[in-house]
Amino acid sequence: MAVAQVNRTSIYYETYGAGFPIVFVHGHGLTHEMFKPQIEYFSKEYQVIVCDLRGNGKSGKLTQALGDIIETQCLDLILLMNELRIGQAAFVGVSYGGLIVQHLAKYYKERVHSIIISDSFCRIESSTLTGKMQLAAAYCSWLVYFSPGELMLPATRLSYQRWSRAYSEVRKGMLDKRPIELYKQRLAASLADYSEHLKAIKQPALCLAGDFGSFGVDCMKEVVSRLPGARMKIIPDACDPSNLCQPDVFNEVVRQFLAEQLRLQEENAGDSAGERRFG
After folding, report:
1. Virtual CA dihedral for 139, 144, 145, 147, nearest 10 degrees?
2. Whose CA is closest to 198, among 99, 278, 110?
3. pTM of the predicted model, to two decimals?
């Protein structure tokens, strides 16, 4: 447990294990604690880094304008990597964290080895009726953020009745929320559009989505369609966040993907060394 003073704020973070680094980026309204099953699993083989994004959990305040929020949170992560002397890492982003990962892969590509995006999206298509409704809902959601969290618990419990671990973390987030900062991040996410940016991303990519709800699956399919060479895996009996609804499946799929990418990296490095020696 530690706090890094970076980018004129404080970022709470935790590190576990040793090996190739994996940075996990939490979803909207949640904190680093949503990755407890991943910390336990991946720290046996990798260096796991989790943190609270600016404006969340135990980290500093979020005062930026809407258009600067995601870039600022990404820069926080890069500077945290510098503090930890990590040159490059794999990034796993869930929900809102998936937007952060897309931004990192585009604008900080030399620091991103590979990306795993789960239960996220690349844009809200405001030209469609559904998109306009989503955007309107984002702006009208202030009531949810500024109402006591206890009022929303019955509906949340019903939504997550099949996934007690996920409900526990979502419930904690609702009771400990920072309403102004969460509302601003909701609006920032609604205004973000990485649909064209994804086409330029070269890092290996894995996209995951819980099968409980066609809308979430369709959002991730759009991400896959725009990411060159990206793979997609549908996780059965799961919703956002899939890493908590079905942690065993989530962990194994991510582990296989990372192991393959690191193996390919070693093979390519060996081939390059051989070419230099005998070329």
Report:
1. 140
2. 99
3. 0.93
CA 69 to chain centre: 15
- E runs forming strands in 26-80: 47-51
What are the phi and psi torsion angles at 121 (to 5°)? Answer: -160, 170
Q: How many Cβ atoms sit within 10 Å of the Cβ of residue 210? A: 26
The CA–CA distances, whole Å, from 263 to 55, 115, 184, 269 equal 37, 16, 40, 10
Q: Does domain 2-124+194-278 have CATH number 3.40.50.1820?
A: yes
pLDDT single digits (tens) 192-228: 999 999 999 999 999 999 999 898 999 999 999 999 9
Distance CA 192, CA 88 (A): 25
Q: Interior CA angle at 13 toward 67 and 118, to 5°? A: 60
